């Protein structure tokens, strides 16, 4: 089975390929832009996938993810890209300086549309924010400050395979895979 994935983010495509490798699913990246409505991840993905389908006319997915910090009332959330590109991980660590509540989570919402039904698939991974940037050369964006629950390394210190065993993205893509297998 082939899944068309509308995204401009190569990291996401690499992860999706690893996640779906054993599922007999092939991922093909397409670069069809869509408006990112201001709203929750669910809304961004649902509107986005409708817009891409209009232009592409084949079953397609979009995926919207975010990083949510408990102490900061879920900031940066849907502003994750902008915040990463502006204050970055150093800015986040500053905001949490001397803070003991370092809980955070990643969330992914995949939107799938085949012209019939819109489906949303969600994945979350909880964890904590490290006190310093720990980058093992893997991952991207917030990965170097996020330690998933039950682990001691940040996502950026794990290989993409290790990250993809437990990530938010893995969980959402598995929901999608299960749905597609049972169609
Ligand atoms: P597309 O919309 O083109 O798919 P994007 O980079 O804008 O790509 P998102 O809106 O889904 O992606 O994600 C917002 C930001 O959240 C993203 O730019 C990263 O900074 C961050 N992010 C998403 N997934 C991540 C992950 O697995 N690890 C670390 N940071 C992540
Ligand atoms: Na986006």
Automatic annotation (TrEMBL):
Catalytic activity, reaction form: XTP + H2O = XMP + diphosphate + H(+); ITP + H2O = IMP + diphosphate + H(+); dITP + H2O = dIMP + diphosphate + H(+)
Residues involved in Mg(2+) binding: 36, 64
Enzyme class: hydrolase
Source organism superkingdom: Archaea
Residues noted as binding substrate in the record, renumbered to the chain: 7-12, 65, 140-143, 163, 168-169
Pfam family, one: Ham1p_like
InterPro entries linked: dITP/XTP_pyrophosphatase (IPR020922), ITPase-like_fam (IPR029001), RdgB/HAM1 (IPR002637)
Enzyme Commission identifier(s): 3.6.1.66
Keyword terms, alphabetized: Hydrolase, Magnesium, Metal-binding, Nucleotide metabolism, Nucleotide-binding
The record's free-text note on cofactor binding: Binds 1 Mg(2+) ion per subunit.
GO-annotated molecular function: dITP diphosphatase activity; ITP diphosphatase activity; metal ion binding; nucleotide binding; ribonucleoside triphosphate phosphatase activity; XTP diphosphatase activity
Cofactor dependency: Mg(2+)
Gene Ontology terms: biological process: nucleotide metabolic process; purine nucleoside triphosphate catabolic process
Subunit field text: Homodimer.
Protein's name according to its UniProt entry: dITP/XTP pyrophosphatase
């Amino acid at each position: 089975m082939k899944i068309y994935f509308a995204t401009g983010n190569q990291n996401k495509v690499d992860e999706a390929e690893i996640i779906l490798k054993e599922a007999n699913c092939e991922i093909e990246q397409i670069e069809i832009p869509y408006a990112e409505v201001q709203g929750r991840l669910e809304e961004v993905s649902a509107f986005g996938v409708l817009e891409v389908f209009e232009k592409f006319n084949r079953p397609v997915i979009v995926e919207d993810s975010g990083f949510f910090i408990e102490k900061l009332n879920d900031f940066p959330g849907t502003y994750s890209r902008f915040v990463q590109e502006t204050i970055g991980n150093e800015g986040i660590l500053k905001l949490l300086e001397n803070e003991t509540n370092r809980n955070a989570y990643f969330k992914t919402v995949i939107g799938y549309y085949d012209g019939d039904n819109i489906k949303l698939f969600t994945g979350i991974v909880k964890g904590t924010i490290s006190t310093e940037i720990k980058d093992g050369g893997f991952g991207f964006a917030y990965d170097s400050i996020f330690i998933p629950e039950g682990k001691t390394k940040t996502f950026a210190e794990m290989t993409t395979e290790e990250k993809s065993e437990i990530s938010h993205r893995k969980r959402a893509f598995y929901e999608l895979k299960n749905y597609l297998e049972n169609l």
